[in-house]
Specification:
The structure is a single chain. By secondary structure, the protein is α+β, with helices and mostly antiparallel strands. The protein contains 13 helices and 18 strands. An 8-stranded mixed beta sheet has the order 6-12-13-18-17-16-15-14. A 5-stranded mixed barrel has the order 1-2-3-5-4. Strands 7-11-8 form a 3-stranded antiparallel beta sheet, with no helix packed on it. Helix 4 crosses helix 7. The longest helix is centred in the first third of the chain and has 23 residues. The protein binds one RNA strand of 76 nucleotides through strand 1, strand 2, helix 3, strand 13 and strand 17.
Length: 465
RNA sequence: UCCCCAGUAGCUCAGUCGGCAGAGCAGGUGGCUGUUAACCACCGUGUCCGUGGUUCGAGUCCGCGCUGGGGAGCCA
């Protein structure tokens, strides 16, 4: 019969206690150890918070020899009393009555107590959550995920699980990863083309690039819905803002126009920023201190200012009048470049900017055409440092206009039969947007590479871990 | 995919004009100390990314490739 494992108290609870405690059990990993005359200071972290607990190991402990061999990365279970610390730097410390060494990390443990570069840590992505910075980032990621669900729940939205496997390329938001069970060494063919009738689904299949079209069907049934799940893009993008697998939040609202869409997006960003400041103060503090000195300022600005809303046409005029030399020229009808977007939000307005009513030629088929005949009810939210963080639109609810648009863009009409059905039966004005979860995390932490806010990033030529 | 930059010890980096491969940190040993990026002394560490070339001689110069980073495009 196994002995019952001792129940531990997590360090975040422990350090917030008001009074000393005779008996506590702390389990975690050694961050560093400092020897003193007759005893040793051990810094233990268990991932529940940024702070370590300082453990005092007296040389009267029967395994003290072994304790002095504990190096960074080793795992321990400490039983002892919680006492006020006479030293500066921490309120509490644990005076160990016994220390069980669960495992000793050899000196090959790659993490040191000094600072490592993000590039190096990316090569040991399986160990990097054990560092202060990444531990903080992933605690914030978790908190933010929860807050997103709460935001929508509080507002009466239903959470929809849209499919990850998709049957056709009609989503049009990017290159699809193909999914197949065909034997790649012996692909069946017909008239020189691959015969997908032998494939698992009997036709070409891929991983979703967006849950939007599915979410629209549910918005037209349940009213206000959202999705929050993984999204896949097989683009050969090599930037600090793109990964092949990322998480996206896509609300979709019935009886909602573009203005209300923008209202919700703005409210949501402010809510999430508030949650992070409130619930992750200590972890955010690390980023404000070591990663981005402007972080608090940026978040405060987001919280306190009304987002500047301008039309695409106004944006182009501002950029033309700016006299700034851009690498790419600004012209009506051309999409805004990263440098243009950043100029608007970072230099001109110095706060989040919503650009809306884009020329229809540069936007997808499903966006609602405006009465001017040349623009669509689209909106992008631009924030400092990141650029585009949200893209959304009012959807085209008029069947004839939508069909004409599909024809105009030479898309396969028959693939959209079910999508068009929603406009055939009880169609109503509706709107939605997509928020890139990782980009939100970058914005709220100051982390400047998207590969560092997702546990195991997938990018071209990189699927390790 | 395009443009630019980089690759030297476990990590971070220096390496002059082409002439014997270096430091700090981490690790080990000893000392000191209610310490806290602890401190002091000593010790070990190399496919200089790979490959081909120029040269008496290449970490250093040239070509090609690989990997990483920054920027651009695609977008979230």
């Amino acid at each position: 019969m196994n002995k019952r494992m001792k129940k531990r108290i997590k360090i975040n609870k422990l350090i917030s206690l008001e009074t000393s405690v005779d008996e506590v059990v702390v389990k975690g990993w050694v961050r560093t150890r400092r020897d003193s005359k007759g005893f040793s200071f051990i810094e233990v972290n268990d991932g529940s918070c940024l702070k370590n607990i300082q453990v005092i190991a007296d040389n009267s402990l029967d395994n003290y020899d072994e304790i002095t061999r504990l190096i960074t990365g080793s795992a321990v279970a400490v039983s002892g009393s919680l006492e006020e610390s006479p030293g500066g730097g921490q309120k509490w410390e644990v005076h160990a009555k016994s220390i069980e060494i669960i495992s000793i990390a050899p000196e090959t443990y790659p993490l040191q107590k000094k600072r490592h570069t993000d590039e190096f840590l990316r090569t040991i992505a399986h160990l990097r959550p054990r560092t202060n910075k990444y531990g903080a980032a992933f605690r914030i990621r978790s908190e933010l995920s929860f807050a997103i669900h709460k935001f929508f729940k509080d507002r009466g939205f239903s959470y929809i699980h849209t499919p990850i496997l998709t049957g056709s390329d009609c989503e049009g938001a990017g290159e699809l990863f193909q999914v197949t069970t065909l034997d790649m060494k012996n692909v069946p063919s017909i008239d020189g083309n691959i015969d997908y009738s032998h494939d698992f689904f009997g036709k070409e299949a891929g991983l979703t690039v967006s849950g939007q079209l599915s979410a629209e069907m549910f918005a037209l049934a349940l009213g206000d819905v959202y999705t929050f799940g993984p999204t896949f893009r097989a683009e050969n993008s090599n930037t600090s803002r793109h990964v092949a697998e990322f998480w996206m939040i896509e609300p979709e609202m019935a009886f909602c126009d573009l203005e209300q869409d923008m209202d919700l997006a703005e409210e949501m960003l402010k809510y999430l920023a508030g949650v992070v400041l409130e619930n992750c103060a200590e972890d955010i503090g690390l980023f404000a201190k070591f990663v981005d000195k402007q972080l608090m300022n940026t978040i405060e600005t987001l919280l306190s200012s009304d987002f500047k809303r301008i039309t695409y046409e106004e944006a182009v005029k501002i950029l033309e009048k700016s006299k700034k030399k851009f690498e790419y020229d600004v012209a009506y009808g051309k999409d805004l470049q990263s440098e243009h977007e950043r100029y608007l939000t970072e230099t001109h307005f110095k706060k989040p900017v919503i650009v809306y009513n884009y020329p229809k030629a540069i936007k997808p088929f499903y966006m609602r055409q405006n009465d001017d005949g040349k623009t669509v009810a689209a909106m992008d939210i631009l924030v400092p440092r990141i650029g585009e963080i949200i893209g959304g639109s009012q959807r085209e609810e008029r069947l004839d206009v939508l069909e004409a648009r599909i024809k105009e863009m030479a898309l396969p009409m028959e693939e959209y039969w079910w999508y068009l059905d929603s406009r055939r039966y009880g169609s109503v004005p509706h709107s939605g947007f997509g928020l890139g979860f990782e980009r939100l995390l970058m914005f709220l932490t100051g982390i400047n590479n998207i590969r560092d806010v997702i546990p195991f990033p997938r990018t071209p030529k990189n699927i390790e871990f």
